[in-house]
Structures are given as structure tokens and as C-alpha cells.
Amino acid sequence: MDSFATVLQVYAGGLVFARIGAMVMLMPGIGENVVPPRIRLSFAVLMAILLAPLVSQSITTVPSSVGALGGAVLHEVLIGLMIGAVLKLFVSSLTTAGEIISLQTTLSFAQTTNPAGAQTSTAIATFLSMLGLVLIMVTDLHHLFIGAMVKSYDLFPFSRPVPVNDAAALAVRTVADSFKLGLQLAAPILVFSIVFNLATGLVGRIMPAFQIFFVTSPLSVILGLSLLGLSLGGIAMVWTDRYRELLAVFN
């Protein structure tokens, strides 16, 4: 190895790869299950090679024991998982909005496989989650992911202990904000559903013999999807702005 890199350089590169690899594993887009593992691994190795000379100046010695070496690697992996999980959790706001919209438009039975997560969800939730990935790539938000990788070494240096309590609080707050944003994104369809169901109930009470179910079910689907189509631009803009604000915390 001395012909290509010193032991200290190999150690520093390994620590950088441990953090970057953990982040790439959870990063929206490149970290999805549909991306081949070799592609994700190659991307993580490339980023580690590029960032190691820039962020490893503080590493001056190599641990002399296996325990210290394992602890250093585990420290980097935990920090990478913490940052990657926060970025991943916020994307679930679109899935939450899709599930709410599906329930309100009686389309929750329309299940399909989500390519991003390789799990079954409603068709609208799958569509919105895929829309989020497209927005990330089109608006160049994925460039901020690379900035978050570099900035993480200023926020969490190699010598700083893992902030477990702060990480748990941040994860809880991110999940709460994600659910709240999902509810806000689905608010137009939610309001429409409340008004439509009230009107349907009123018609059913006035005309008990009227076959209200057969008439209102198609109307609920058509009007709900039409309102979703009209509000899709606003949903995309609001979600993109909120996700950019989240990424600004790590940049």
C-alpha cells in the first residue's frame, strides 16, 4: 500500500467512506432500492475519494487497537445514518399526502408497487412519491446532498461524540413536520371531501329513495382527481421549498 497511499491516508479514506456510504444508502434518489447496489457503492467510493483529502486534515494518527478503530468507524456510520435518515424521512410527507387523498377519493383500494421503496401503496401515493424524486433531480436539490456531505464534517467532526439525544429529537421533529406537511398538501382534497360528504348526506336525508351511493361515488373520484390535478403545481412548489429549507440546515 505504501506505493499508492500511506496507512494514515487509507485510514482517513475508510472513515470518510463509512460516513458517506451510510448517507448514500438512505439518500433519496441514488439510495433507492431500484438503484443497483454496485451503482450506490461506486458513487459512495467516488465521493469518499474526492472528499477525503479535503476533510481529513484533523486525522493525524491511526488507532493502535482494534477497539478504537471499530469505535471510530461506528462513530462515522452513526452520523451518516442520522443525516441520511432525516433527509429520507421528510420525503415521506408526499406518501402521507397521497394516502390521505386516496382515502378521501375512495381510491385507497387501488394498490400498486412503489418503485422507490419496493413496497405496496396506493396509486396516488406512489405517483406523488415518484413526483418528489423527479422534483429533487429537476430542481438540482440533489446538489445540496453533496453539500450536506461536506458540511457534515464541520457540524460533526471526527473527534465530536455522536449527539444521540439531539439526533433522536431531530428525528421525532422531522417525522412530525413530515406528517404535518403531508396533511397540509392534501388539505384541498380534504376540504372538498368534507363538503361533498355533507352535501351527499343532506341529499340522502331529503330523498331517502334516491340511489345516492351509485351517483356520488363516480363524482367523488372524478372531482377529487380533478382537484388534485389543479393543485398539483402548488403541491410541488410547496414541497420543494420546504425540502430546500431542510437541506439548508445541513449546508
Description:
- The longest helix is centred in the middle third of the chain and has 39 residues, at 66-104.
- The chain is built from 8 helices and 2 strands; from the N terminus they run αααββααααα.
- Helices cover 75% and strands 3% of the residues.
- The mean pLDDT is 84.
The helix/strand order is HHHEEHHHHH
Beta content: under 5%
End-to-end C-alpha gap = 35 Å
Kindly provide the radius of gyration, computed on alpha-carbon positions and rounded to a whole number of angstroms: 24 Å
- Counted by DSSP, the helix tally is 8
What is the residue-mean pLDDT, rounded to a whole number? 84
Q: Can you tell me the residue ranges where pLDDT is under 50 for at least 5 consecutive residues?
A: none
Major sheet size, sense and barrel closure: 2 strands, antiparallel
What is the helix content? Answer: over 70%
Computed structural class:
mainly alpha
Strand element count: 2
What general outline do the C-alpha atoms trace?
elongated
In which order are the strands of the major sheet placed? 1-2
In short:
This protein is mainly alpha-helical and 251 residues long. The chain has helices spanning 7-26, 37-55, 66-104, 123-138, 142-155, 164-185, 187-206, 212-249; strands at 111-114, 119-122. The chain has a two-stranded antiparallel ribbon.
